[in-house]
Structure formats: structure tokens, C-alpha cells
Amino acid sequence: MAIAKSPALPSLATTKGGRGSLATQVRDQLRTRILTHEWNEGKKIPSEFDLAGQYHVSRVTIRTALKALEAQGLLDIRHGSGAYVANFGTSIRAGLQELRSITDTIREMGFEPGMTHRVVKRRGATADEALRLQIAEGEPVLYMERAILADDEVVAYSYDAVAIRDLPEKSIGEMGKGSVFGAFAKLGIFPVRALAEIHAISSMDIGWGKGRPKSGLYLLLKQLHFLRDGVPVMASDTYFVEGRFQFIIHRTL
Amino acid sequence: MAIAKSPALPSLATTKGGRGSLATQVRDQLRTRILTHEWNEGKKIPSEFDLAGQYHVSRVTIRTALKALEAQGLLDIRHGSGAYVANFGTSIRAGLQELRSITDTIREMGFEPGMTHRVVKRRGATADEALRLQIAEGEPVLYMERAILADDEVVAYSYDAVAIRDLPEKSIGEMGKGSVFGAFAKLGIFPVRALAEIHAISSMDIGWGKGRPKSGLYLLLKQLHFLRDGVPVMASDTYFVEGRFQFIIHRTL
DNA sequence: TCGATCAAGTTGTAGGACAACTATTGACTT
DNA sequence: AAGTCAATAGTTGTCCTACAACTTGATCGA
């Protein structure tokens, strides 16, 4: 095998300590290569052996990365044959089961994300919030009501409650401005998992402002975000205006 | 380490050729052990080394299985520490991203599944069906309209179109009776992946019969089922009556 | 009492080897 | 000439061993 080094492969973990394990980094880079159509749908990607050569890692690491991508529905690995790019239509994009901020998702879909805050305050937790966040009723939470925009059009209304616990007081102001996850990251808080419940809702009491949909039809994503150790940090009820956002789920065995 | 063989571990692949790879079999057995609460939520499961001993397989195989379970949100693997059972509330159960028949899911939730057929016929594909199933308009499809029941209560109405292609004529009758996936399995057809789109729908034209919900509020799961090689075999629009079925999604990084 | 250090345990990565499976080629038979 | 079968190279699946990187709790010392 010739050591044909790919021209523009970003090196692994050169800058800023390279978040996560080697396999994770390889997975993310391979995902990018797949999503940018470096290999056509249904076509075979290089063998594990070749990829190990390209990235200068062991076959074990490559396998771990490939298996992860298979679990996410991007690859189809066949024993004795090779790994193939899963072929759906052209849509695919980011599935719902991948945890990322709404803002990022909107941006990735090619729109300009925006946000307007109607309420940002600190108050005691309601009974429901206390139950979900595993805190006592009345314990302080950061409560927000926001409208989420894509290209200046409202796509969702979100009602969020963040458990304060040992959050520094000054950081609360941060939350009221940009992305919540951005503010989390600055504090070293990284939600790694969310449990979401989905409902269809018809109500005139959800949206506000002039962008409010007349139909009152929403897809409710009732989420609870967890830290690595299972501690819940944020409960958010996000009402997506039906039709303005495409929700996709990959289902695999 | 003592070779303390667990008393009731089903042996791997003793009967009927043992479907799938070793790692897949181990994954399924471990999943069962997790879902039956053999280990409490948040607690550590045995080390990879121990598990390898229990199942008489290599650590690599155990790792592959554990990684798969982590991707499904059942485990949380921490470098240098161990693998922990993910702790959400008690709900969890089967997430939406796991592909399985509605019937099985209902049964697993502790209800008695049922089904009534309103329409089962062979007809030409509509434009939309042709597009989704990647066949020509007018090509024959098996079209069905079914009501899906749990404990004799309607939980969903489903409109399905199965691509006939080289389906034997006699098997079409089978479809009209029990589970569609059961009929598929008998023919050696195994959908391994589905792409689902979610919508909130408010309409009085969906349900029928006396169990029809007065609200007309549904959660629409617009699905397309694929074979391993990416060939679409069934397009189904399933309207779940809002509130009668709990939809859960695990979201991970 | 508090902090640093150490040691044991666990997951992550490496490398080599072989088994199991797939797809293609080429020879052979009819 | 066409079809069948066997050999073969290429690829993923599993095993083994070893060590690196990380976590956790115990130990020791100031």
C-alpha cells in the first residue's frame, strides 16, 4: 500500500488539547468527510487498514470510530466487504438524536439563527420543575422564556428552567444573552445527554409577538438535560411551530 | 480473579445459528440484563475484563458491545473508572431511535397489542409513494389502512404502502393479518433502518370508527424503511393519537 | 486536619495474528 | 458459448498481549 497521505486531513489534536478520545476525534473528522460528500452515497469508504494509515492510529481506534458512525446511521458496515455510506435521500442532515443546541442546528441548516428573550429571571422552582431537576420545591432556578428565530422568522418558543445549585451569580446574566450552552461551556458545565418527550400541541397560549402562528399547532419537545454523572441541569419545554422545522430521526436495530 | 460463572447466563448462539456477530449477541444479552435492573441505575457494571470472563469472549468483543449500548444511551462509560448504567427516571424503556415494530413496543410496555384493518389492497403507487419508494408511478404496491390498538384502545392510525417488486403474490394475504414485520421476516426481508419525520397534525379526516379521538390531534411519524443495501421497502404514515403513547428520544453527543 | 503521594483498578490505544466472510477472477465442464 | 465451480485476494470480526492514560481510594507526612 502506498502511503498516499490525503492532502487536507486536519491533524488530530494539534490545537487546544484536542477534546475527547482519539476515537472521538477520528469519528468527528470522518463524519465531516461523509457529510461533505467526499464519498458518494452507497459507495465504499477506504478500508479500516487504509484509514488507520491515513490518521496514523491503530485499527482499533478506526473501528471504534466507524462503529459509532454506524450507530448514528451514517455508515453501513458489512462483514467481509467494507463500510458503505448509508444512502437515504439527500435530506439526512442532523438527526434529532444527536444532542446539539438549536442554534447550531439552525446554523448548520443554512439559516441565520436569532433569539429574543421575553423573560429572564431567577425564581423558585415550581413543583414540576423541582421534580424534573431533582431539587426541592422553591429552590432557585433561572427561568427563561425565549423565541428562537431562523432568518428572522420564529421557529420555536422555549420555556426553560436551569438549576442554579452552585452557579456563580454573575454567570446568570450571561445566560440571558447568547446561547445557553455557550454559557454552560464557559462554566465548565457540559450536558452530555438529554431525554426528550414529544407531543403534539394545539394552543393559542404558547407563542407571543407578531410572529405568532395563527394555527396554534406546535410540536413540543419536553427535554431534560443531564450531566455525565446523571445530574439534571436544565428542563426545557420547546414548542416548535409546525412546518417550520424539519425533525428527523434515524431508527436502527 | 475467580471464574465465578454467573448462574443463569444464556449461552451464546447455542440454538439456531445465533443471529448476528458475537458482539451483537453480547450486546443484546447485556441490554436485557440492564433493562431487567440487574444493576441499579447509576451503579457500575462489571469491568470489561470480568465480562469477558463471564461470556468467554475477548475484551474487544465486550468493548464493542458496551460501546453500542453507550450509543443507545443505556450506558455511560468513563475512562479509568468503569461503565455505569445511565440513570434517568424510571421511564426510559425503548427509545424512538430503536427500530422495532409498534406491536412489539406496545407489548413491551405492558399492553396487549391489537390491530384492525380497514383497507388491504393492491394498487398502483401514487406520485408521492413512487418518489419515496423509488419506483415508477403506477407500479404495484400493497396499500393498507390500519388502526393500532393497545388494550383495545386505539393508539394510532397507519397508512402504509409496501413496494411489491418481487414479493410473491401469496404473501400479500399474510400482510393483511398480523404484523407486517412478521410477514417480512418470513420472506427473508429485514428492514434494518428507517428515516422518520415528525409532525404535529390537527385534522378530523385521519381516524375512523368509534374510537376516533374528538380532538383530532395527532403526532405523525412519516417513515421510510430501508433494507441493508439502501433499497426502500415501505413508506408508512402513522398518526399517533396525542397523549396515548409516550414518545421518548435519547439525545447524545 | 489537610494535602500530596502512591498504588490498584479500569478504560483507551497499539500491534500482530488469524478466522470468517465477500466479491471477483479464471479454469473447467457441459 | 454459456454456465458452474474453485481458487484467491481483500475486508471485517475476534483474539491475545502489552502498555498508556485516567480515576479512585488508601496511605503517609507535614
From TrEMBL, chains A, B:
<dbReference type="InterPro" id="IPR036390">
    <property type="entry name" value="WH_DNA-bd_sf"/>
</dbReference>
<dbReference type="Pfam" id="PF07702">
    <property type="entry name" value="UTRA"/>
</dbReference>
<dbReference type="InterPro" id="IPR050679">
    <property type="entry name" value="Bact_HTH_transcr_reg"/>
</dbReference>
<feature type="domain" description="HTH gntR-type">
    <location>
        <begin position="20"/>
        <end position="88"/>
    </location>
</feature>
<dbReference type="InterPro" id="IPR000524">
    <property type="entry name" value="Tscrpt_reg_HTH_GntR"/>
</dbReference>
<feature type="region of interest" description="Disordered">
    <location>
        <begin position="1"/>
        <end position="23"/>
    </location>
</feature>
<keyword id="KW-0238">DNA-binding</keyword>
<dbReference type="GO" id="GO:0003700">
    <property type="term" value="F:DNA-binding transcription factor activity"/>
</dbReference>
<dbReference type="InterPro" id="IPR036388">
    <property type="entry name" value="WH-like_DNA-bd_sf"/>
</dbReference>
<dbReference type="GO" id="GO:0045892">
    <property type="term" value="P:negative regulation of DNA-templated transcription"/>
</dbReference>
<keyword id="KW-0805">Transcription regulation</keyword>
<keyword id="KW-0804">Transcription</keyword>
<dbReference type="Pfam" id="PF00392">
    <property type="entry name" value="GntR"/>
</dbReference>
<dbReference type="InterPro" id="IPR011663">
    <property type="entry name" value="UTRA"/>
</dbReference>
<dbReference type="InterPro" id="IPR028978">
    <property type="entry name" value="Chorismate_lyase_/UTRA_dom_sf"/>
</dbReference>
<protein>
    <submittedName>
        <fullName>Unannotated protein</fullName>
    </submittedName>
</protein>
<dbReference type="GO" id="GO:0003677">
    <property type="term" value="F:DNA binding"/>
</dbReference>
